[in-house]
Amino acid sequence: MTDLTSLTIAEARAGLASKSFTARELTDAHLAAIEAARVLNAYVLETPERAREMAKAVDEKIAKGEGGPLAGIPLGIKDLFATRDIRTTACSKILSNFIPPYESTITSQLWRDGAVLLGKLNNDEFAMGSSNETSCFGPVTNPWRREGSNTTLVPGGSSGGSASAVAASLCMGATATDTGGSIRQPAAFTATVGIKPTYGRCSRWGIVAFASSLDQAGPIARSVRDAAILMCSMAGHDPKDTTSVDIAVPDYEAAVGKSVRGMKIGIPKEYRLDGMPAEIEKLWSEGAAWLKAAGAELVEVSLPHTKYALPAYYIVAPAEASSNLARYDGVRYGLREGAKNIIEMYENTRAEGFGAEVRRRVLIGTYVLSAGYYDAYYLRAQKVRTLIKKDFEDCFAKGVNAILTPATPSAAFGIGEKGADPVEMYLNDIFTVTVNMAGLPGIAVPAGKDAQGLPLGLQLIGRAFDEETLFSLGEVIEQAAGRFTPQKWW
Amino acid sequence: MTASAAPHKLIKGATGDWEVVIGMEVHAQVTSNAKLFSGASTAFGGDPNSHVSLVDAAMPGMLPVINEECVRQAVRTGLGLNAKINLRSVFDRKNYFYPDSPQGYQISQYKSPIVGEGEVVLELDGGRTATVGIERLHLEQDAGKLLHDQSPTMTYVDLNRCGVALMEIVSKPDIRDAEQAKAYVTKLRSILRYLGTCDGDMEKGSLRADVNVSVRKPGGPLGTRCEIKNMNSVNFIGQAIEYEARRQIEIIEEGGAIEQETRLFDPNKGETRSMRTKEEAHDYRYFPDPDLLPLEFSQAFVDELKAQLPELPDQKKSRFITGLGLSAYDASVLVAERESAEFYETVLAGLADKARDGKLAANWVINELFGRLNKEGVAIAASPVSAAQLAAIVDLIGEGTISGKIAKDLFEIVWQEGGDPRVLVESRGMKQVTDLGAIDKVVDDIIAANPDKVAQAKAKPQMVGWFVGQVMKSSGGKANPQAVNDLLKSKLGI
């Protein structure tokens, strides 16, 4: 029997249906792989007992012909998603003992459809980071290494555990969240497929909030088709999240392989940055050529406010975060540090419970919302946001179906390499934050490697609620570029 | 329009008269089964933390969902205040740390409230009125409660009230003295209770007021204001304003300046004391709540609520005056409380002839019933005399079956023993005697026994009243006074 962990979800689905193997066997294979890959630090909590229990139950259902669309598919869950009776920490010390008595909407939909929980995946603390180095459980290691090098690289962030686990075949797919690029950047760093759906496409209920107006959950998988399959289960309206939108969930999988002939693909000139590595430039041109070869039309477009996106993002996101994280006060749950009075308890608990990056963003956010600074920062940033949205609207109004950009300005970097200057780290999200600011869907698809053999990805940005086009286009790139699997060294 | 047009009380200081300027923020708990953003119950008095949802406790990843009934209640209230209803409003976060606020922020409406400008008409003593402008009304979450007396070293938190919907009703600074302030809260409370949007129970904290007080020379520029927080009694509001105004006048007249601050009223000492100064004021870092979309509804939604609005005290009062001929005072008394008005209307509905006896019924409800209820400390809902029984008594008077005096005895019997007034009148022989033959002899006897009075009456016809009294007395009150009067006049030849 071939290694079950190397299958895609689509392949595993077929194997389970034809009874080539059981859900239990598939789960066991993954549990063994997880155990052998602890050096990657992708999982912060393994749940083998729960996994076997769920797999057994699914096998019984499959035997009765009742398996759901994800029957028996073992998944990893970013530790930002509340899982009932299973520790959920957001990889923060302040929630290190938190066991929710509730299940997030998205994970409950996955279990409803038959998926199996393997464990909780590492991420940057409260999803704040681009390298997965801010986790209280320590950094995640990228399964990819530079050719001929032993340097441990970051998997990107904040969904570093999800990307690393999917790339290293420690799960067939993973949930992730994306506030400024946290799905797409790690996907690009690990040669996986990651999609940030339109804001409102997936429920945020039960996901630890970072920046509510930007946060959106999505899948990371090893193929475009797998990402589409997962999206079918994750998407949907949730009355418990009033920002989720009541639009029917299309059959995303049906969009995979659909012709892209006649589609107009925008190439935004503002994404051609000064000093951008030639490899990225080349990758971008190649991607455009592949889409053209598939019958799409390329047009140069302008998104003039792109350069303001990152600074505006680093006002809006910390502002919301400073308020969203106020609930972690030591009063009702989570960490509580002793003190003489309530003010001291707040101070001690939050100083001890939050890591440096989280503290930095809470401070920035508190500052930009303060009386006297609100208009200059927060209000201004919101105006920029409106302009960014309008840039995209103008572009789509001209008949553009999707926009092609690089996913990241570079390939994965070494752990500890970019710790000193936070802005250097923030620049990782330069191509992705605009999409969150505009609330649009964006997909990162592996497209090639750099000179050192590290994966690089391309990003496709779509119209609101048109994830289908992204899946169709993404598959064209996937077909042309081929699949990339890291050499196993762990 | 402002209240300054109405005559109001000035305060005499050493340097002359001072005018008090008052604005109020009233927090009214919305009547609804569930909280503003969660499905948890709003019932009062449950065990601590028994009405707390995951949202109320601000568990990670929980999201608020607006309770539409609370929105309807706010719109109804806005309509009841003749206010502008904003079809689009925005919820903001008011950020501050305190253990009674699990989210670390209160969801409120800052820049775009659900209700805009409106007005309330006050009735003051002597038939005067004053109009107080409403600046705005917005929806917000109530906080939980800290329990400091449960442990010597710890403070406990009860989140039952946390997240319950409040309407903050902000007046313009149109109120000019303590009497108007009291009348404003009373009137607002009455409107809310008519609308059924707030139970108005001040003792339970369903209605609380923050009172902003400043003083100035009449017509002069506005002075610096102090805010007296969390007042939950109409009388305390009056006392606090009187004290605060004098305190401010004293400071200014002694050459000092008023510092803008938040103060608390101590009802035991009858004085206000500083709680925090402007420098200590929080920076609430308001911003639109990203978990909630702007609150939008159509004009049709508003129109439908408007069409179903109950009759409000002002409308009811004018109907009582013009339709039934009640005095303005009686009408005011009847409409002041929703329950009183409802009781009176039930009495009216039971009358055989509303046009004839509506006014009489009002007298009976106000003087006999309310007087008695007040004296005994009984709520109208628990009145031993029902509206139907009272209507029957009024009918009996109106149709001339019993006299007013007998009616009082009948009322007493019904109050004490209950029973059908009509049956009681029969069974206890309380019917008024209109048969002249039966009283003829009594009249003759009295005339014969009082020749001096007869002489006086002939000279001064008003003296007939004395004879009527005598006849009524000897007939046990059962004689028809009008008939007695007529008979006496003819016999005395006046």
From TrEMBL, chain A:
One of its GO terms (biological process) is translation. Its EC number is 6.3.5.7. The keyword Protein biosynthesis applies. It is an enzyme of class 6 (ligase). It comes from the Bacteria. It holds the Pfam family Amidase. The active site is at 78 (charge relay system), 158 (charge relay system), 182 (acyl-ester intermediate). Gene3D superfamilies: Amidase signature (AS) domain. It catalyses: L-glutamyl-tRNA(Gln) + L-glutamine + ATP + H2O = L-glutaminyl-tRNA(Gln) + L-glutamate + ADP + phosphate + H(+). InterPro entries: Amidase, Amidase_CS, Amidase_dom, AS_sf, GatA. One of its GO terms (molecular function) is transferase activity. Keywords: ATP-binding, Ligase, Nucleotide-binding, Protein biosynthesis. Allows the formation of correctly charged Gln-tRNA(Gln) through the transamidation of misacylated Glu-tRNA(Gln) in organisms which lack glutaminyl-tRNA synthetase. The reaction takes place in the presence of glutamine and ATP through an activated gamma-phospho-Glu-tRNA(Gln). Belongs to the amidase family. GatA subfamily. Heterotrimer of A, B and C subunits. This is Glutamyl-tRNA(Gln) amidotransferase subunit A. It comes from Bradyrhizobium ivorense.
UniProtKB/TrEMBL annotation, chain B:
GO terms for biological process: glutaminyl-tRNAGln biosynthesis via transamidation; translation. Keywords: ATP-binding, Ligase, Nucleotide-binding, Protein biosynthesis. It catalyses: L-aspartyl-tRNA(Asn) + L-glutamine + ATP + H2O = L-asparaginyl-tRNA(Asn) + L-glutamate + ADP + phosphate + 2 H(+); L-glutamyl-tRNA(Gln) + L-glutamine + ATP + H2O = L-glutaminyl-tRNA(Gln) + L-glutamate + ADP + phosphate + H(+). GO terms for molecular function: asparaginyl-tRNA synthase (glutamine-hydrolyzing) activity; ATP binding; glutaminyl-tRNA synthase (glutamine-hydrolyzing) activity; transferase activity. SMART domains: GatB_Yqey (SM00845). Gene3D superfamilies: 1.10.10.410, GatB domain, N-terminal subdomain. It comes from the Bacteria. Heterotrimer of A, B and C subunits. Allows the formation of correctly charged Asn-tRNA(Asn) or Gln-tRNA(Gln) through the transamidation of misacylated Asp-tRNA(Asn) or Glu-tRNA(Gln) in organisms which lack either or both of asparaginyl-tRNA or glutaminyl-tRNA synthetases. The reaction takes place in the presence of glutamine and ATP through an activated phospho-Asp-tRNA(Asn) or phospho-Glu-tRNA(Gln). PANTHER family: GLUTAMYL-TRNA GLN AMIDOTRANSFERASE SUBUNIT B MITOCHONDRIAL AND PROKARYOTIC PET112-RELATED (PTHR11659), GLUTAMYL-TRNA(GLN) AMIDOTRANSFERASE SUBUNIT B, MITOCHONDRIAL (PTHR11659:SF0). This is Aspartyl/glutamyl-tRNA(Asn/Gln) amidotransferase subunit B. It comes from Bradyrhizobium ivorense.
